[in-house]
Design brief:
- The complex is a heterodimer of chains A (about 450) and B (about 325).
- Chain A is α/β, with parallel strands linked by helices and about 450 residues long.
- In chain A, strand 1, helix 3 and strand 2 form a beta-alpha-beta unit.
- Helix content of chain A is about 50%, strand content about 15%.
- In chain A, helix 9 crosses helix 10.
- In chain B, about 30% of the residues are buried.
- Chain B is flat and about 70 Å long.
- In chain B, helix 4 packs parallel to helix 8.
- Chain B is mainly α.
- Classes of the chains: A alpha/beta (about 450), B mainly alpha (about 325).
- Chains A and B meet through helix 1, helix 4, helix 5 and helix 17 of A and helix 2 and helix 11 of B.
Chain lengths: ~450, ~325
């Protein structure tokens, strides 16, 4: 072997060793939780820098930015940075599903972003892990006036999540289909709804009266499309914070949903249908009525500009005159329990929750504000949104799954049993008793 | 033959080499460590990316609910007992066995049929090129695209029902993915559709490598087409068939994305697989220790298959 070749081998060996050392270093950095961990490491570095007098960089993970008009959230962050010199905000944005997985991983690894976008269904489990900071304490420390908040999600008496904006789920009705079917106005009670659904289905073709997505991949159909019937009639699925699925209201709700299914007025494919499929069925004029998020109004208008539709309150049980619960989903916000910049993180939360900024955000999101004094801009110029806002104000936001432990799993187990009932595998009573037993184990 | 080998005079493997190239026990330490430096990055990657995660999952599976519990304690095999006594687990095992068994068998039959078609001399090269492009298309799509595509095709108001109803083959809309009696067959069909090109391309490469003289010799011996297929083609392709079939069993057993994005394991639990069962334990029920136990069981099953694969490969070598 020549000297050159030997030298080459030594250089190769050195390069290999150097690569190994770099790998060890890289893996050491990454072991704190994948991408979230890396980002958090960056945040920690920023925190150290802050201690030395330079800017603090807050990480803010959420799924909101991709769902808002381009630049809307970044614009708010720029305003926050201008108002709070020394604090920078790094947005960690992604679709809902990946944000959820990263947040769960971050909670487990202790590498959650300083400020986190939250869904109400996650809160209880994150609190158990000690992953979220007690916002009640942060509010007290900063003398924050909490009365301006429309809602606070509490666990054991302390606030851990604040709904920033709320997406309500009213009843959408296809004006043309209703007119063709001879239905003069959107139904207000269960009997009228069944009648309207039957008449619309009788139009024939691919048209059905109602649509109910029950996919087990995302079982939020239980919350939005099934239990909403119960809440709209003032019913509850809980008693003293514990499951109470065998009560008369829940039984009447499931009986009613089954009667719609048995009457064959529900769009086919419901057992594996997802929310986006539901919206698609309605947008394409194959379904006369659906319960859906107000957030989809723009999408429906864009996808089918010719579709004429109305928004009304979800029908209540016959003869009900009380206030109607209207289901909602929130873009919630919280602060990491491991954040080194909790005070700065709270500044960002309170910035998003103040009257002006909350109005801006809710307007951009086509949602209702989390600050009671805020009024979204779209309400004034759009009849549909105005109608929805009126329904929202006339009733009360109702979502009993928010804050429950393993809320997703509760919906899924309810969903599985409901599917068995709809396909004739068991009675409604059996279904509710079984689900009550399954749920109780989680409380 | 063995006697011949024994009878052959033994020769030093170092015969003819000059002294400096012989291994010496007194080589400097740096020279002796040099080979290890070459393999070290690979070994390190394997340890960090494979052994450490596997070790962590196994450790988690032996604790009470890790991650959610601030101070998890060792519980032995309790999580394994919970998993294997769960009827949902055995439902998932049955579904996975059906899904995998039917998928692998159909992949093999379809892959072989299309490979033979593309290897035949009865079609022109242009026709074969067109078929080759068409047949390989399913392989070019990602799982997400496949799921969306088939959800649209199999929608009750979708293309397939339209064609079947137009042709008078069905009276009402079939709920392919939402009917508990059909859903498992539907997702298995989708998996078959998406996976056969892997077999087709592997077997086509194998077919093109079979010497022509074997077929000529068989023809001279009076073998007909079927006999040439069973006595020449299949034996020649056996190593490839065994390898890809074992790999396919491992891949299909672990199929998650396709099931999750088409049915989510439903309706009810008729398409629940081991992969979706484990995912739900972790990310819906937050039972990370149970999920780890389930994952460890799947890992054990995969290891058994991998053992046979490696043993088969060694036997071939």
């Amino acid at each position: 072997m020549s000297k050159g070749a030997r030298a080459g081998r030594r250089i190769s060996a050195l390069v290999s060793a150097a690569t190994a050392v770099m790998l060890v270093a890289a893996c050491g950095g990454g072991s704190s939780g994948g991408s979230a961990g890396s980002a958090s490491a960056a945040g920690s570095a920023a925190g150290s820098a802050a201690a030395g007098g330079s800017a603090v960089t807050l990480e803010f993970s959420q799924w909101w930015e991709p769902e808002l008009p381009t630049g809307a959230l970044r614009g708010l962050m720029d305003q926050f940075e201008a108002a709070n010199p020394g604090i920078k905000v790094k947005l960690l944005s992604g679709p809902f599903a990946s944000t959820k997985e990263q947040t769960i991983a971050g909670a487990a690894a202790g590498t959650m972003a300083d400020v986190v976008g939250l869904d109400g269904a996650w809160v209880s489990d994150f609190v158990k892990q000690g992953a979220l900071a007690d916002l009640s304490k942060l509010m007290t420390d900063s003398s924050y006036d909490a009365t301006q908040l429309a809602a606070q999600i509490k666990v054991n008496g302390s606030t851990y999540m604040i709904p920033v904006v709320n997406f309500v789920y009213p009843l959408f009705t296809n004006n043309d289909l209703l007119t063709k079917a001879g239905v003069t106005a959107p139904p207000t009670n269960r009997t009228e709804f069944m009648d309207a659904a039957k008449k619309i289905t009788a139009l024939g073709g691919d048209v059905k009266g109602w649509v109910m997505p029950l996919s087990l991949e995302a079982p939020n159909g239980i919350q939005n499309d099934v239990m909403s019937w119960n809440w709209s009639s003032g019913g509850s699925m809980l008693k003293d914070g514990k499951p109470d699925l065998t009560n008369a209201d829940v039984k009447a709700t499931v009986d009613y949903v089954k009667s719609l299914w048995d009457a064959k007025v529900v769009a086919p494919g419901g057992l594996t249908m997802k929310e986006q499929d539901k919206v698609e069925e309605f947008t394409n004029g194959r379904v006369g009525m659906m319960i859906d998020s107000l957030a989809h109004v723009t999408l429906i208008r864009k996808s089918n500009p010719n579709l004429k539709f109305s928004i009304s309150a979800i029908p209540a049980k016959d003869g009900y005159t009380g206030k109607r619960g209207i289901p909602y989903a929130s873009w919630g916000i919280g602060v990491s329990g491991k954040s080194k910049h909790a005070a700065e993180a709270w500044k960002l939360v309170s910035f998003l929750m103040n009257e002006a900024n909350n109005s801006t955000l809710s307007t951009a999101a086509n949602a209702f504000p989390g600050n009671t004094k805020s009024v979204p801009g779209f309400v004034a110029g759009d009849d549909l949104f105005k109608a929805a806002f009126d329904i929202y104000k006339a009733g009360y936001p109702a979502n009993e799954f928010t804050g429950l432990p393993v809320a997703d799993e509760l919906m899924r187990s309810f969903d599985e049993q409901l599917q068995k009932t709809l396909t004739g595998g068991e009675t409604v009573d059996q279904m509710l008793t079984t689900t009550q037993g399954t749920w109780s184990k989680n409380f | 033959m063995q006697n011949d080998v024994k009878a052959a005079p033994r020769q030093s493997p170092w015969r003819g080499l000059t002294r400096p190239d012989r291994p010496s026990p007194r080589r400097p330490l740096g020279r002796r460590l040099e080979p290890y430096a070459y393999v070290f990055p690979t070994v390190l990657l394997m340890v960090v990316l494979m052994l450490v995660p596997i070790g962590m999952v196994i450790r988690y599976s032996l604790m009470d609910n890790v991650i959610l519990n601030q101070n998890p304690v060792f519980v032995g095999i309790a999580n394994y007992v919970t998993v294997v006594t769960d009827p949902d687990f055995w439902n998932a095992v049955r579904n996975t066995a059906f899904f995998t068994g039917v998928s692998v068998a159909a992949h093999l039959v379809l892959g072989m049929a299309f490979a033979l078609l593309l290897n035949t001399s009865l079609l022109s090269n242009t026709t074969k090129a067109i078929f080759r492009v068409l047949f390989i298309l399913p392989w070019l799509f990602t799982v997400a695209i496949i799921a969306v595509l088939w959800r649209l095709l199999l929608n009750p108001n979708g293309v397939l029902n339209y064609l079947l109803q137009t042709a008078g083959l069905v009276d009402s809309k079939v709920e392919w993915l939402a009917d508990p009696a059909i859903a498992l067959y539907a997702v298995t069909f989708i998996n078959i559709w998406s996976g056969y090109p892997f077999y087709m391309m592997s077997l086509l490469a194998g077919l093109q490598g079979i010497p022509r003289d074997l077929y000529e010799a068989a023809t001279v011996d009076g073998a007909n087409g079927w006999q040439r297929f069973t006595n020449v083609t299949i034996p020649q392709l056996r190593p490839i068939i065994m390898s890809i079939a074992l790999l396919d069993v491992i891949f299909t057993t672990q199929q998650f994305a396709l099931i999750w994005m088409t049915t989510g394991g439903g309706p009810i639990n008729v398409t629940e697989m081991l992969s979706t069962f484990t995912y739900k334990l972790a990310f819906n029920r937050y039972q990370f220790s149970l999920a780890s136990a389930s994952a460890a069981i799947i890992f054990g099953m995969s290891m058994v298959l991998a053992f046979f694969y490696v043993r088969y490969q060694k036997a071939r070598d």
